[in-house]
Amino acid sequence: MNQPNSSRSESGTAMLVAGAFIALHLLLLSFSFDAIDLEELEYGNFGIALLDQVEQSWQSFQTYPREGSRVLLTPLVAPLFAIFGSSLWTLKLAGILGASLWAGVWILIARRLVPSSSLIAAFLLFALPMPLVQRAAISASSSFAHLGASAWHGLALLLLLPLQPTRRLALSRLVLSGLSAGLGLFCGFALAPLLPGLAWFITIKYGWRPLLYWGLATLPGLGWAFHARDATRLSSQGDLIVGLTGLESGGAFRGEVLSQAIDNLWLTVVYGAGFGRVDEASLELHYLPLGAVWSLLLVSGLLLAWKAAASNSIKDPSQAQLARRSLLLSMLVYLLVLLLTGFKVEIHYFDGPRYLLPMAPLALIAALWAHTRLPLQRRRILLTALLFSHVLGFALLCRPAVFPAPWTSIKGYEPWVRRQFIDTDLQPQHIESQRLPRWTLWAGLSAAFEAPGERSWPELQKLPQRHGLLQDDEAREEFWRGFGVGVLLATEHSPPERFIPADTPPAVESLLWQGLAMGYNNTGCQEQILTRLFKAAEDHWQDELWYGAGRADIYCKRYLQGLPDSADKQAFSKGRRDGWRLDYWSGDGELQVSEAFLNRLYIY
Fold first, then answer.
1. N or C: which end of the chain has fewer CB within 10 A?
2. In order along the chain (604 residues), what is the average pLDDT of each group of 10 residues?
3. How many angstroms separate the CA atoms of 426 and 431, rounded?
4. Where are the beta strands (DSSP E) in 463-544?
5. Per 3-state DSSP, what percentage of the chain is helix, strand, and coil (rounded to 5)?
6. Whether 127 contacts 103, CB under 8 Å
7. Would you give the distance in Å from CA 578 to the centre of its chain?
8. pTM summary value
């Protein structure tokens, strides 16, 4: 077969795998309504800002502005939002499309690294990989971050592996590979430990000069990555990992090195394949130790294949052998860095084992290599067992009771993120009406932080005008509620009522009290803060506080067992309804949802 036909054949293979991957994971998504991750919603913010013409720095749309994928990739979500609506379903569709590129790239690499492999076996393994990847594919945050790092790694490696192996690689391929590696570093530093294997491959296969060209090509992305980080934090930290990620050792995400290394190895073997099931009562994903069976299958297959390889006549080209060693080196360095930095392989979060995602291709390619080397009977047993486990993992993640999952009803963005403020003037005429109130709430919150302290009403009443909010409509009301939220957060240890001017019109003051109560869900739902507000407010503002408590309770879930006798139940119920419509509803799907639906809406 000549090279053009081979290229077309490869393209067709990648597209078929990507298409099957998309279809299967859209099916999984329709059976998988469980938790709403507020961090995932942040991946929709930049796309929404582009649609609504909000000219704000990209870092301000994420709580921790350390991942460049949100500026480089999430603008691609904007056309999807424009076509399908700005729902969480659309955002997850973007994640699935991104994950399908991962599948398409890595099957091409697998075919180069194991040239004698079965195309059907490779297709099945990458179209429906282990549950770890299945779960990541329906989470935009995992698809863009850790699975995204694996995709960038794959693209950089694929460009180094021409269809027809040569002693010299075209400069264009070297440069494109280096650019991919650099941009991947900008998207997330999880890629960094994977690059030594690529550098080793270039050096052994092509020499030192090509390595220099490749390294120079990574510099634009690497420079962008360091520029996007907080330079003061980098210079003040002795721990590079803390400087890059902000995650201290001994915290929720990093543990003590030695003990965490032992834990990580154990969790990788037992839970790393990602088998899990959503608990119907708590809606939490419980990871299952079925990964131990999957690991045993893979290791057994590799050992048997290694034994059979001695008498096997299969001889792979030198490029394939070198590339396999390169991939193995990348994975060993990645695993070593994971162990030495103390990052935790968690099994208590929906995306808990996400740090293992860059290692998934090695496991699948190893399975494909073992399948190729085994005798026919054992080959069929290994492939059937692995695929059965993948189908089982798929079935365990499905929840037939929620089909069709109402992801289209949930908004796929959250412009207001913690620790970030809006520093531009809104242009309401360019903002979609369903989204405008959420923007104005963020604007009001930011205004409260701009000049904290006691101010007169003549000063305050000018604030909405800056954002073109000239009419007494819902968008303006949300601005004042947002201002109340900001007052609470900015004066958390001071009596917030001090910051409501005495001459504030009653209509605005009622909105400020509502916002004060709404803000308690952003203080970790601390009960004492809400109690302090009820004690501070005069009797005629109590119902406004109950409205705000209702808005906050969709997240906090404090009153699921019932309201106290002193509560204004009507105001609380109205707050809950407005909270769904203004804070979480996408504008599509069902607006009039049941109390049971709101009670079960799990947000974290």
1. N
2. 57 94 97 88 91 86 71 84 95 96 96 92 96 94 89 95 80 94 85 92 92 94 74 53 61 70 87 90 86 95 85 70 92 88 75 86 95 91 96 95 92 84 92 94 91 77 91 93 91 70 90 94 86 88 95 92 90 94 88 86 86
3. 8
4. none
5. 70, 5, 30
6. yes
7. 27
8. 0.91
